[in-house]
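Exercise 7b. Backbone tokens:
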């Protein structure tokens, strides 16, 4: 796979459709294709068609599709954390971070399916990690505890966000069927066979 060309050497001539390629435009187009057609739409050929350029031109910006996936993941993080200014309350700040990450993945549920568990190694992720660990250090935790607590925190947040996003990405009929199951199936179970579920079934709705 060709190596990505440094930014200053990237193509600046318009494509045959008159578009000036950029890393940002490629990521935006990839997110749109994934949102419309699912993760299987992420291919160099389909991106080239959508951008009106030869697919090989994309290698001026990315090593390949995996490099693009990392850029997509970092873009979601960047959008989620845009404008975030933590206050003095570190617990409230971490809560806001968690909600922002959740909202970011729910905004792109189909992309979240393969982006949420990647380590992007890119600027937006690095800034977010630095912010989170910084909040814990400022709260008085030592370096080892701050690192451990942050990783536990962010792994939990990402896991829940990815699960919600995956559910949101399901076809409407499947989502509705899953939601109805709590009232249509779990409420009518045999108490002698499932005593624990029977005891709490009213709270499962």
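Sequence design result:
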């Amino acid at each position: 796979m060709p190596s990505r060309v440094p930014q200053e050497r990237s193509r600046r001539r318009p494509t045959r459709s008159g578009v000036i390629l950029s890393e940002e435009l490629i990521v935006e187009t990839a997110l749109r294709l994934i949102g419309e057609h699912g993760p299987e739409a992420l291919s160099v050929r389909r991106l080239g068609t959508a951008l009106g350029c030869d697919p090989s031109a994309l290698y001026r910006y990315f090593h390949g599709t995996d490099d693009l996936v990392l850029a997509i993941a970092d873009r979601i993080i960047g959008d989620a954390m845009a404008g975030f200014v933590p206050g003095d309350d570190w617990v409230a700040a971490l809560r806001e971070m968690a909600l922002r990450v959740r909202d970011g993945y729910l905004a792109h549920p189909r992309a979240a399916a393969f982006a949420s568990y990647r380590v992007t190694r890119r600027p937006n992720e690095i800034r977010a990690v630095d912010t989170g660990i910084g909040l814990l250090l400022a709260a008085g935790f030592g370096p080892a505890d701050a690192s451990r607590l942050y990783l536990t925190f962010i792994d939990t947040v990402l896991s829940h966000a990815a699960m919600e996003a995956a559910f949101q990405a399901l076809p409407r009929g499947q989502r509705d069927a899953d939601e109805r199951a709590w009232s249509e199936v779990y409420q009518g179970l045999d108490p002698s066979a499932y005593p624990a579920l029977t005891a709490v079934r009213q709270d499962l709705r």
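Instructor comment: The chain has a mean pLDDT of 89. The chain has nine helices and no strands.
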